[in-house]
Structures are given as C-alpha cells and as structure tokens.
C-alpha cells in the first residue's frame, strides 16, 4: 500500500461510464487524460463530447503527473473523521496534458509553504485495493 494522507472515511469519487476509464487507470497508478481523436483536444474531467469539435470519439493518454500549482485553498473543516487539518485543495496545471488542470490535494507540505507556481509531482494514495487517488506533492527542482 502507498503512503496515506487521508482517512478511510473520505467520501470516494463517483465513477460513471464517462469517468470509469480514468479510475481504472488510476487503480494501476497511471494518470490519464481524455484526448479527442477528432481534433486532439485534451479534457479533464472526462466528458462524453469534445467541447471544441463535438466529436464523441476519444482515447486516453497517460501523462507524467508533473505540473505546478495554478491556485489553491486551505481547508480548516474536516469532511471525514480523523482527518488532519488544515489540508490543501489545489488546482494543478499539468505540464504535459494539453493544458488541462486537475483539482486534487497537495500533500507533503505545510499549507503555509504552498504557493501559486510551486512545482509539483504526482503521488498515488491507495484508499483501497480498487481505489487509488492522485494527489500532488512539492517537486524539488
Ligand atoms: Zn475534438
């Protein structure tokens, strides 16, 4: 099992037909973004239709998980028992994902040290045998 950052009682993400490939890849510790096979536009979160060309055809591209903090907020209220406070919710601008941004948690840093533009890298948190959540931590460059 991976390092843990959040308690078991965290509400799990909801998977549906559109997002299931993302979560299946995540369970294998692969971060993927949906890419329109019509025009190449990438999108995350996944959507059934391309916002650029309206094509419903898409595939999934694995990305590195490197990026930087686009913006963030510090949360002081728990949503699960046993949760350490405060914690950081961040929008991560992924470096090699066609310009998409991903909302996740920044872990492994004091909230006081988080800054816009901070380089980050992906870290997987195995919440169970079937569910891995992508989180991000500071990347020292
Ligand atoms: Zn498209």
Task: Report on this structure.
The protein is mainly β. It has one domain (20-138). 6% of the residues lie in helices and 35% in strands. It is built from 1 helix and 8 strands, in the order αββββββββ. It has one helix at 20-27; strands at 32-36, 42-43, 58-62, 67-75, 87-94, 101-106, 119-126, 132-138. It has a 5-stranded antiparallel sheet with strand order 6-5-4-7-8. A hairpin with a 5-residue loop joins β7 and β8 (132-138). The chain binds zinc ion (ZN).
Shape descriptor reads globular
- As laid out across the biggest beta sheet, the strand order is 6-5-4-7-8
Bound molecules: zinc ion
Q: What are the secondary-structure elements, in order, as H or E?
A: HEEEEEEEE
Q: Main β-sheet, in a few words?
A: 5 strands, antiparallel
Radius of gyration equals: 15 Å
Number of domains: 1
The structure class reads mainly beta
